[in-house]
Amino acid sequence: MSSDGEQVDGDDIDVTATVHHRAIFISDLHLGTPGFQAGALLDFIKHHPSDYLYLVGDIVDGWQLRRRWFWPELHNDVVQKLLRRARKGCRIIYIPGNHDEFARRYFGHQFGGIEVVDDAVHLTADGRSLWVTHGDRFDGVIRVAKWLAYLGDNLYELTLRLNRHLNHWRARLGLSYWSLSAYLKHKVKKAVMYVTDFEEAVANEAQRRGHDGVVCGHIHRAEIRTINGILYCNDGDWVESCTALVESVSGKLELVYWPTPAVAQQVNKPVSVAVIT
Q1: What separation in angstroms does the CA of 34 have from each of 58, 157, 171, 177, 223?
Q2: pTM (2 d.p.)
């Protein structure tokens, strides 16, 4: 209870948090799937207050929910946490992706204070213009053969299920978390070429539009690098890597890696690793 009698939500913002971010960008939560690391995201939000929060697509996985309904209480907690953050003054901008394309019919609307837009432009504290887009429009597979994207999504879900079983036994043996799908993506040459082509296409479009950089998601690969003079930022995902892009009050951009539950159990506390630009 606050001094003016208002009920204070004690689990919304951790009073021990020492860093207030100007903006946070997260994507590819895939709410509605067993792979979503809801506990990790709830803990991340608790420790990271911000003025702006960008939801950069694939927040809800409509593809999977159409096939099989999966919505545990923790997923509902995430939605409530986001709505609560919006009520407390954080500006939340939601840019739907291909997995939550159903939300694209609501461009220009607000739901609980969360704005739904096609894309956005974020001006950093140090004056840089960042184009914010999910990125699926630059995915050749989705543009040319959407059925193949659905097939790939099913195979990815299968890989994640295998990954959960594998890491269950690794944990019992005292071994660290290991991502099967990330290993396969890095080893398959065509997958590497696909990622490179995607990154260059997104950066080129940002340059064509006259921006200094771009923030996107979609490919589940967190990265900050410069491509042909354009700052390319991918905020990763909350299925495996549990990553977010954050902007400090001075305008510095940083990738924060928030451990999956399996890793968090081993280190007993959250750990972040930053790449700053």
Answers
A1: 14, 9, 19, 17, 25
A2: 0.76
